[in-house]
Specification:
By secondary structure, the protein is an alpha/beta fold. Helices cover about 65% and strands about 10% of the residues. It has three domains: about 1-415, MFS general substrate transporter like domains (Growth Hormone, Chain: A, Up-down Bundle); about 430-615, no CATH class; about 625-695, Rossmann fold (3-Layer(aba) Sandwich), CATH 3.40.50. The protein is globular.
């Protein structure tokens, strides 16, 4: 993900993200470890849950003003203001440590979380402004991984410092603990000051929105909550993304509150470094899972990871009570985190993609409200269950049921994610998906997607490339096959036939006016040549006067696959074991009344753009030759009538040996060969190319 660091402002931004999470986590760890040392059993679970609740509550209380500030003011200035507040709060925290005032320090957890609540919508909203739509998933992966690294660093550093300052001391209540570890407070102040410095290096990407005003009366009466929440509930994808995120973090909060007591009682572990280190493995897993998810989703949003992540989390919860030592628990927490990363990255990216620029801050604030409200409910239930004597094992069983239910619900409400998973599994060993021009896909509103038709799986590839669910127009005789119909109905496919197309075209028209994305292939059939054929005019009738835009696209890389209508010989040639790139190129938005002739011209231009992109990524001749020779090391590779044949390994060995002679005896850049068309001529040419020479082959049969 080094490409993100080349974006101006990303490095100071990601540094602020790290330091903010690090400081917030540091104070929380001090308070939690103090509770762990002083209290046991039911009281420990309840107080730990209250600490977590104090961190979550501000996100619920200030949803509206935090979202308003993020939308109205430049987000870099909101981040800067939050950094100033963090400096002031950490100074007070340090003072209370030295005075040994546990309960005031306990309460400052809430104040520190309050500044984070104002900072959070600006932090996540700034991602889209800074990196654009096409880099959303990668940037979210980077932010998630950085936050996780900060959490891990904070857990280990502050837990180790906590134990070290308390070593060889007599613990006489919470006050004595705080006074012994008081120097740690200066570390919090120092990191807050560094965060402030980097906050001033974040560039401004938006101006103040003078048209936005804050109505205090409406806020106090709850009208803002209704408006902000409607922006979420009216967008199904945004709402489902938030639900998924909320359930994951809700389960995580219960795990954080419950596992220390379980480790102490069931496993006999009393060292906070071991307990915090075991749970920190979940953070390492989230970091690894986020990085993996970001790499997979570099040019698009890969929602196929959502069901994998959800199912994996349920599995980890199922086996947790059966693991009897800290090493196995650490591995399980690591796996939990990896699956969590698979879940978090696409859900966050989907939420940000589907939000309009002028409402992103409010949606992110509403996301904070819902997530933290769910987490508070989970923690409240944890306290209630603990009060009535339901232990850790009972809570783990309940969490497992919740995770399984979440997995089933995800697949039911987001079936396109399951399709991505299935198709990715089928083609993953032979193809890599790349998406170009994702920025041209509008977040909302009716979209008519029109492009070339190369294979039987074009519809699945286009859906994989699109972050929005798509309704496809399909030939009726395929749709009506009994073994396909139930499956296609999940995706609201629109069947069409040549003799009765009017009702189907009207349904397309109605769907566009409702704000749906509809895709059809204007060629009307799968290509038999790999080239663009005549475009039919049927889509023009469906698009007439529709409140939508046309989004042209071009598919490259499937011609010659087993899913296309290419010749068997070409399919065999393509079946070499090499991974091929599938490119989905989205063009610029076109007016809804664009004619078939004009549309075909735009798609033809997209084919050129996608080809140029493909060729720019191809290796040069030298490395490509070495890879081919290695891959065919024991197989026939070259022959001539005199020398016979050479395998790939012998050919490569000859070329490398001769290239060393060229490097030794021919320092000039240009080199000419007077050789016949033969194995020797091929060896000489490839050897010179490996040395970076400019080669000229002279006519061997010329008289002079």
């Amino acid at each position: 993900m080094a490409y993100l660091l080349k974006i101006r402002g990303f490095l100071p931004y990601i540094t602020v993200v790290f330091l903010n999470a690090f400081v917030d986590l540091g104070h929380k760890i001090i308070i939690q470890n103090t509770i762990f040392k002083i209290y046991d059993g039911q009281e420990q679970i309840i107080l730990t849950a209250i600490v977590n609740a104090l961190i979550l509550l501000p996100f619920v209380l200030v949803m509206t003003p935090s979202g308003f500030c993020s939308d109205k003011f430049p987000k870099n200035k909101v981040i800067r203001f939050s950094a100033w507040v963090a400096v002031v709060v950490t100074l007070f925290i340090t003072l209370f440590y030295y005075l040994g005032w546990f309960w005031p320090a306990f309460a400052l957890t809430f104040i520190l979380a309050l500044q984070s609540a104002f900072y959070s919508p600006a932090k996540y909203g700034y991602i889209k402004e800074l990196v654009g739509k096409e880099n959303l998933a990668g940037a979210n992966g980077m932010v998630q991984a950085t936050t996780t690294i900060a959490i891990l660093a904070g857990i280990f550093l502050f837990s180790i410092m906590f134990e070290r300052f308390l070593s060889n001391t007599t613990i006489d209540g919470a006050s004595s603990i705080l006074q012994n570890i008081a120097p740690v407070g200066w570390g919090l102040v120092l990191f807050s000051l560094v965060e402030l410095c980097f906050a001033y290096a974040i560039p401004q990407t938006q101006a103040v929105d003078e048209s936005m005003t804050f109505d205090l009366s409406a806020y106090l009466k709850g009208r803002y909550y209704k408006i902000n929440m409607s922006a979420v509930f009216d967008r199904e994808i945004i709402f489902l993304s938030i639900v998924g995120l909320s359930i994951f973090w809700g389960i995580s909060q219960v795990m954080l509150a419950t596992f220390p007591a379980y480790a102490k009682e069931a496993m006999g572990i009393s060292n906070v470094v071991i307990i915090q280190g075991t749970m920190a493995c979940a953070g390492i897993g989230i970091m690894l899972g986020s990085i993996m998810a970001a790499r997979i989703s570099r040019s698009h949003i890969e929602t196929g990871m959502i069901p994998i992540g959800s199912a994996g989390i349920a599995l980890c919860l199922l086996i947790l009570p059966g693991l009897d030592n800290e090493y196995l628990q650490a591995i399980n927490f690591l796996a939990w985190g990896i699956f969590g990363g698979f879940l978090l990255i696409p859900l966050n990216a989907m939420m940000q993609f589907h939000a309009e620029e002028d409402e992103l801050g409010r949606i992110l604030a509403a996301n904070n409200l819902i997530q933290n409200a769910v987490m508070l409910c989970f923690l409240g239930l944890t306290v209630l269950f603990a009060f009535y004597g339901i232990g850790s094992l009972g809570l783990f069983s309940i969490l497992f049921v919740v995770a399984v239910g979440g997995t089933i619900y995800t697949v039911y409400r987001l079936p396109q994610s399951m399709i991505r998973l299935i198709i990715s599994y089928i083609i993953g060993n032979k193809y890599r998906l790349q998406v170009l021009g994702l920025k041209n896909m509008p977040e909302t509103g009716g979209v008519l997607m029109l492009g070339n038709h190369i294979s039987w799986i074009d519809w699945a590839i286009v859906q994989m490339a699109s972050p929005r669910p798509i309704r496809f127009v399909m030939i009726r005789n395929i749709y009506e096959r009994w073994y396909l119909r139930w499956f296609l109905n999940i995706f609201n496919v629109i069947p069409i036939s040549s003799g009765a197309s009017r009702s189907a075209l009207q349904e397309v028209h109605d769907s566009l006016n409702k704000g749906d994305v509809v895709c059809l292939f204007p060629e009307g059939t799968i290509s038999r040549t790999g080239q663009l054929s005549k475009f039919q005019h049927g889509y023009e009738k469906a698009a007439e006067d529709a409140n939508a835009i046309i989004l042209p696209f071009y598919l490259r890389g499937l011609w010659g696959s087993w899913f296309s209508r290419s010749s068997e010989k070409l399919k065999d040639l393509r079946n070499t074991g090499i991974k091929h790139d599938i490119i989905v190129a989205f063009g610029e938005q076109l007016p809804i009344d664009t004619s078939a002739h004009e549309l075909k011209r735009h798609i033809f231009e997209l084919s050129i753009d996608s080809w140029e992109h493909y060729t720019e990524q191809l290796p040069t001749i030298g490395p490509a030759f070495i890879d081919t020779a290695k891959r065919n090391s024991g197989e026939f590779m070259i022959a001539d009538p005199i020398s016979g044949t050479l395998t790939g390994s012998k050919f490569l060995t000859s070329v490398i040996c001769f290239s060393r002679l060229i490097r030794k005896y021919s320092p000039e850049q240009n080199i000419g060969f007077l050789l016949p068309t033969s194995i020797a001529g091929s060896i000489a040419n490839m050897a010179a190319i490996l040395q970076g020479k400019t080669v000229v082959n002279l006519n061997f049969t010329a008289n002079r």
